[in-house]
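Course assignment 3, question 2. Fill in each field.
Student: A.L.
Task: Predict the tertiary structure for the chain below.
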Amino acid sequence: IAQRLTAAVQTIPTFYLTIDCEIGKLLAAREEINASAPKDKEKKPLYKLSVNDFVIKAMAVALQKIPNCNVSWTEGGMLRHKHSDIGVAVAMPGGLITPIIRKAETKSLSTISGEMKDFAARARARKLKPEEYQGGTTAVSNLGMYGISHFTAVINPPHATILAVGTSEERPVVRGGKIEIAQMMSVTLSCDHRAIDGALGAELIGAFKLLIENPVMMMV
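Answer field:
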């Protein structure tokens, strides 16, 4: 882990793009979906979606909408990916690991949620297989559960991007000259400038913002 992080910082020319997302619709949809989740024989819900499940799905769909960002830099040329394989940073004793949700753009939120719960449990038990955490096209790192409002994340090669997700919190916003309270979340996209320039990165984080603020668009 230390070797890869050092190589990433020393060899990848990185720039950062931060944007604020209003997630009131997302939280309402999450509450409604979780409330209507089917139950098992013990009357426990079969799934319970987290905000991070929506983030993973939104990032996967955004990469499909901006395919020039779904790339990896190699010395031989640019590698373009067909699917959105999203790595998700999971803390474990002595470091972190990034299991991959493969073809995340094709999966339902409940499927993503189930895979993440399984990956997280096995990651902490050090039972992940190498093919489950190697490769991928981008990654998501979420520190919102720790109350962190904003941070930047280190790109994990061969990825060209990583999305750092802060906490969901009430903030004052101005609409039509009036101050209102909205549920906001800040995200920061780290980009490898060899593969993605500023304007292209802005398109990707803009596509993510549109999806996360309007979660029904992820279902289409």
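Instructor remarks: The chain has a mean pLDDT of 94. The first strand starts at residue 14 and ends at 22.
Grade: pending
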